[in-house]
Prior knowledge:
Elements: H1 4-18, H2 25-42, E1 50-53, H3 61-74, E2 83-87, H4 90-100, E3 107-110, H5 114-117, E4 131-135, H6 136-143, E5 155-156, E6 159-160, E7 163-167, E8 173-179, H7 180-185, H8 187-190, H9 195-208, E9 216-218, H10 227-236, H11 240-252, E10 256-262, E11 266-274, E12 283-286, H12 294-302, E13 306-308, E14 319-325, H13 330-334, H14 336-350, E15 357-362, H15 367-377, E16 385-390, E17 405-409, H16 416-427, H17 440-455, E18 471-477, H18 482-489, E19 494-497, H19 506-519, E20 526-528, H20 529-536, H21 541-549, H22 552-560, E21 563-565, E22 569-572
Parallel strand pairs: 1-12, 1-13, 2-4, 2-7, 3-4, 7-12, 14-18, 14-19, 15-16, 15-17, 17-18
Antiparallel strand pairs: 5-6, 8-11, 9-10, 10-11, 20-22, 21-22
Amino acid sequence: MPSLSASAYSLLSTFFSENGSSLHGDHEQALKSFLNTLEQGLNGELPASYYLLSLDPGMGKTAACAAFLRAWREAGYKPASSILVGVSTIDELKFFAAASGLPSYDFGVLTSEEEANALGQPSDLHGEARVLFTTQQMIRSRTKGKDFADASEFHYQERPRLLRLWDEDILPSAGVVLRRDTLFGLVAPLRPEFPEFVRALEDFAASLGEGQVGQVIKVPFDLTLSSGQAYVASRQIATEHERNALEHLILMAGADMLLQHSDRYGLELVGSTPALPADIAPLVVMDASGRVRTTYQLWEENRGDLVRLPGASNDFQQLNVHLWKRPAGKDALRSSGSRDEIAAAIADALARDPDGEWLILSYKDSLDDLARAVERFRSPSHTPKLHWLHWGRHRATNAFRDINNIVIVGQNAYRPADYLGLTLAASGLPLRSNSPHDTAATREGEYRHHLLQAACRASVRKASGGLAGQCNAFVITSQGNAEQMLETVFPGHNLIRWQEDEPANGQVAQAIAYLQQVVDHDEFEEMSKQALREALGIRAASNLRQNVLDTERFRRFLAANGLEMTTRTIRRVECAFDPID
């Protein structure tokens, strides 16, 4: 009798064949290894680690899970075990449950949406359902502050389910950023009900002003509330941002955090807190971005409990990336002149497929203005069907998989403190006073992750035989090393220069060449204009300003490389994007 993983692989091969594809090479070996791991987990044979499968979007992660569930059902649910499946969204959960082919009486659904819950057994029968589908947010919220073994809502026959699947990204801890200004904002709404807590909060927030940037600060133990008190307190707070701050403050009570300063937000505390109980392992994780994100590398190198399963990436030779390196962030799109320049270029690109379908991805609060600008510049003879999507909704949807043209405007950026929090959460490294943590690699890894996810909303995700689908991607970004990142994310793609900037000349070219060498080092933060003038051999400050600093070409170089000028210096830009949830 074939093993469960062999039966699942047979079903999976049939699925690929029926859809005009096949399995071979690294792709085949990765899926076989993955199915073997699932069988080991179902048998309770996996050591307590996190097992990461990294396959590009469209390479069959969900299909492999569905085949495994079908094979297990056809085997009469032998071995007699149980499975928990955690997905990122309710829509993904519905798709996953439907793809599994399980009858409704064999599984349960635990979410905050009654319609989704009704797909399976009633909640009072979840403990007898072999498979339980839920969301990752539900797992995090129901296990906060306790062991996984104590979360009875996820149990099967009063015991934790043996095989646990987690779809999409994961970190063992969560990065936390607490702004001093936000802590003061909690004082007024909480004072009537919790005067002692507020006194401790005021003293703590005030003391941060006397601290030194880079200092390790311990959050007082008495800045905590019971679960009942926390519920009452959250009802007194008007904004979600402040409610999250209170929740994070309570979680971090007694923990060390690093004091930082932001030009935009003032004093901030940065640290990391456990987001998942230790006993949730073994956990099998499926993340398409696993090969491009730095956070997994930090986890692997410093924590030691991450096991990479054999993975595979697609060949992207059918992907044409049209690259335009220019400012394309929120500030650029707020400027009518800059927005019109971008819109005109998009309208020009539409002429390449004037009657086709296009997906355009940009920032949520810029979509309407950008759409109107594109419409103004679009030729009346061109009638493309345009779909609009914003950053933050660029993952976990297959709705645009048949669209062959995608325009990606800008990048999904975090604030510097958030990159530090991610670095600490992934690595588990201790906080160090007055010793900066290098976050450049994390920042680049997150850019690669979001770029891969964004592009794979379109037809590039329709892979067959390890070959990514045919697609034209028009990428507008200020990333200085975008070419290297593109090659990492889309190996084998065709790079085409789009709206290429004119070459710099004379002293501007010398200044750009010198600065490029300097800013390529991660430790660069700022340099004085005087130092630049001396390096270029320019005697008068007025000549530097007139011949270099005030030229449009030099200003575009600064913007494209994340730099800005102050009165006396050239420095890295303090990220102005809102934190990403």
